[in-house]
């Protein structure tokens, strides 16, 4: 299958498990996260997908997820581009803080705004709008041209960097994207037209 773009959020990390804000902190996968990555690889193998190139962030949890998936596909060693443009949103002063502790300190409503609004950043961090600006700039320059040229590409990244891509591909409004949650280790398969529009979308874990 040509013109394929697969997006997959990394498997559960050690800090996801502990309910901590992670952002750019470089933490590894939990045991469950490793298992989720293996399941994602098996789902993609069942589809018979074969990739020409992979992209991932500069963070180990996304890189490890990709490595496991490629092992399951028999494509270990695939050309892989790592770039911090695909990193998770930077949560600034919230990084390393338990989400319940953050709610106790600033109030549940304020923390919800920081986590879910489109353009309100947490102290010292990025909003989803900020994250989308860097992710989409990179996507337009490096990834989209390959898919539009007929390549099959897999991107292993993070909840918010991938929300930005889904927002673009699915033509979601800023209000709609605030309601979007991407599960860990759940591949989303897009087939794009030559102009970059979406011909088909399937969530393999649904």
Which tags fit this structure?
206 residues, alpha/beta, Rossmann fold, 8 helices, 6 strands, 42% helix
Write the layout of secondary structure elements.
Layout: E1 4-9, H1 14-17, H2 31-46, E2 53-56, H3 60-72, E3 80-82, H4 99-106, H5 108-116, H6 128-148, E4 152-157, H7 159-169, H8 174-177, E5 188-192, E6 198-203
Parallel strand pairs: 1-4, 2-3, 2-4
Antiparallel strand pairs: 1-5, 5-6
Helix pairs in contact: 2-3, 4-5, 6-7
Structural overview:
Helices cover 42% and strands 15% of the residues. It has one domain (4-203): 3-Layer(aba) Sandwich (Rossmann fold). With 206 residues, it is of the alpha/beta class. A hairpin with a 5-residue loop joins β5 and β6. α4 (99-106) packs across α5 (108-116). It is globular and about 50 Å long. Strands 3-2-4-1-5-6 form a six-stranded mixed sheet.
Summarize the structure.
With 206 residues, the chain is an alpha/beta fold. It is built from eight helices and six strands, in the order βααβαβαααβααββ.
């Amino acid at each position: 299958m040509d013109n394929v773009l697969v997006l997959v959020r990394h498997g559960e990390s050690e800090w996801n498990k502990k309910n901590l804000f992670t952002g750019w902190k470089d933490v590894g996968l939990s045991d469950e996260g490793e298992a989720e990555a293996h399941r994602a690889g098996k789902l993609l193998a069942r589809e018979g997908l074969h990739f020409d190139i992979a992209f991932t962030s500069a963070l180990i949890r996304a890189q490890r997820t990709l490595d496991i998936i490629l092992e399951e596909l028999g494509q270990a060693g695939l050309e892989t581009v790592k770039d911090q443009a695909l990193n998770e949103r930077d949560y600034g002063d919230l990084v390393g803080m338990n989400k319940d502790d953050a709610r106790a300190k600033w109030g549940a409503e304020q923390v919800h705004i920081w986590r879910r609004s489109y353009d309100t950043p947490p102290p010292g961090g990025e909003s989803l709008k900020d994250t989308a600006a860097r992710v989409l700039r990179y996507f337009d320059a490096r990834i989209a041209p390959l898919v539009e040229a007929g390549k099959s590409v897999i991107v292993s990244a993070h909840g918010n960097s991938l929300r930005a891509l889904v927002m673009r591909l699915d033509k979601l409004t800023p209000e709609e994207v605030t309601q979007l949650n991407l599960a860990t280790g759940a591949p989303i398969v897009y087939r794009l037209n030559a102009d970059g529009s979406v011909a088909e979308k399937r969530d393999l874990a649904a």
